[in-house]
Amino acid sequence: MADSSTSDMTLTVHHHGKPHTFTLPPDATLQDLSSTIAQTLNIPIENQKLLIAPKPGMQKHPFAPTPLSALLPLTSPKFKLTLLGTPAQEIESLNAQTAETRQRLEARAAAAAKHRSRRPAPSTAGGVHTLSSGGSNTYTFHRLLPLSYLPNPSRSLEFLARLRDDPGIRAAMAKHRFSVPLLTEMDPAEHTTSESRTLGLNRNKGEVIELRLRTDAYDGYRDYRTIRKTLCHELAHYREGG
Fold first, then answer.
1. N or C: which end of the chain has fewer CB within 10 A?
2. Secondary structure, 3-state, 67-90
């Protein structure tokens, strides 16, 4: 929503489902709006994406110095400004949690290795490794993270949990000793261009795996078997070391 008079321009920007009102001079540009958002919401400019509906659509960093009065469809009854982006403190918190999880897993692995070194050798060779053994708690996804600012995050969490608990996925992770600190969903807007759509990402050699769960319209979900296939592909990257 906006006031399109010749006086100061008042814009409502929706972020994480909440409206934020900004007042800008009538000659303000897209760059000015981005800078104001960065100062007010503490979202770095390079992390911002602005979805302008109905047109011109998604705007990404670096933002053009285009006057807002010429860019925004202020008179359209469907006009809406949606901000996609993560505040700096949330990014720092996620990085800290990932590092903490990694340290905890390393300490657990070291303790397990020390314990194994003290055990007497088994009297018979071979053995059966089942998903109910202790390894199933180590070789898994240790944290699931839906994107809370997108619709129905609880459904995304159900998708992530279903993938984590999938018998085939669990068996493969136990077999190859895959331990992934974070499994999260991917924001379609951040990984969609006119030429391609990224389906999954493996970051920092398996510390984080991102999956495109949703359709491009946000309100629907892709086929589970297709998502599962993408996850298997990303786990194969984990095995290859990147």
1. C
2. EHHHHCCCCCCCCEEEEECCCHHH
- The rounded distance, in Å, linking the Cα atoms of 184 and 156 is 9
| 69 contacts 40 by C-beta, under 8 angstroms | no
pLDDT of 193: 72
Query: CB within 8 A of 18, min separation 6: which ones?
Result: none
Q: How many CB atoms lie within 10 A of CB 144?
A: 17
pTM for this structure? 0.46
pLDDT > 80? residue 104 = no
Give which of 90, 71, 78, 7 is closest to 33, Cα–Cα: 71
Is the CB of residue 53 less than 8 Å from the CB of residue 78?
yes
Write down the residue that tokens 């020390």 correspond to: 114
Q: Assess whether pLDDT exceeds 50 at residue 239.
A: yes
Work out the pLDDT band at 86, boundaries 50, 70, 90: confident
